[in-house]
Amino acid sequence: MKPKKILVPVDFSSFSEATTRYALDWAKKYQAEVTLFHVIVMYEADVNEEVHLHQLELLIKSREDEAIAKMERHNSRTNNKDIPLKSVFRRNVSAANAILEYIEEEPHDLIIMNTHGKSGLKNLIYGSVTEKVVRLSPIPVVTFHTPPESLNIRRILSPVDFSDNSKKGVEMAQVLAREHGAKIDYLHTIEQQLHPSFQVIGIESIFILNPELKQISKDKLKEFCHSPDIESEYHIIEGPSAPTIADFAGEHDTDLIVMATHGYTGLDHLLIGSTTERVVRMAGCPVLTVGREDKK
């Protein structure tokens, strides 16, 4: 993997300092430089009110001055003097758009960010900054609810659905396993639901109807993820993908989940959603997502 430029969005919340410290651990491991990125979010109504442009400019300048002061305090509490660190500010009506636009302007190798924001119905309608970045970023993104105290990756979970995108996630997991000396758990979930009539007669698992399915799936998983130089285990579990992945990670002391996102947008995203985004929302450990390839 070997990232040399790491982008860390910060909002000066209680999570930001811990997130920055965790990002500095990644930077120390890979001798990378870190960019702390803060978005001054404007409202579209304000931007469109030309009559108030002067007052708006004064207000935004005041916000920027306050943000600069906060960033200086933030850096003084978290910076390791051995790691190159710079601060960048941007104005935008969308924090997620600002992040995505910036990595197009200034290429980076990795984004590290905290997941907090909207939930419930608001999340369904608007999504969150983190989930939009995860979905659309062309570079890997590490997300978490609470950052680990240090970078110590000994066990990696690599969910597999046998798609081309899934292969990218497997390859990234293998790269990280070699760099960190970690073990990989490869996991394939089978979501097929049985007709209620089977449950009436006491058949509650697809594996009972097809006893060979589990072994066939495990053989296919071993072939798909072939990595003889890495300590590995292969798991086939019946159940809904996202909660099964999150539960497995919690039960097996997983340090990092590595998986790809399909990058759905528009109607596809509204109707289909993304298992990866749900895992990001549910997992108790950090999740590294491999973004869709840049189409340029």
Description:
Belongs to the universal stress protein A family. InterPro entries: Rossmann-like_a/b/a_fold, Universal_stress_UspA, UspA. It comes from Caldithrix abyssi. This is Universal stress protein. By secondary structure, the protein is of the alpha/beta class. It folds into 2 domains: 114 residues, Rossmann fold (3-Layer(aba) Sandwich); 149 residues, 3-Layer(aba) Sandwich (Rossmann fold), CATH 3.40.50. 46% of the residues lie in helices and 20% in strands. The chain contains 13 helices and 10 strands. The chain has a 10-stranded mixed beta sheet, with helices on both faces. Helix 11 runs parallel beside helix 13. 34% of the residues are buried.
* Beta-strand residue percentage: 15-25%
Q: How do the strands line up in the largest sheet? A: 3-2-1-4-5-10-9-6-7-8
Write out the CATH superfamily name of the largest domain.
Answer: HUPs
CATH topology of the largest domain: Rossmann fold
**Class from helix and strand fractions:** alpha/beta
How far apart, in Å, are the first and last alpha carbons?
22 Å
Question: Stretches where pLDDT falls below 50 for ≥5 residues?
Answer: 117-127, 267-273
Say how many strands there are: 10
Give the biggest beta sheet: 10 strands, mixed
Indicate how many domains the architecture comprises: 2
Using the CA coordinates, give the radius of gyration: 21 Å
Residues in helices, as a percent range: 40-55%
Mean pLDDT: 81
* Apparent shape: elongated
Domain UspA: 4-143, 153-290
Pfam family, one: Usp
InterPro entries: Rossmann-like_a/b/a_fold, Universal_stress_UspA, UspA
Family: Belongs to the universal stress protein A family.
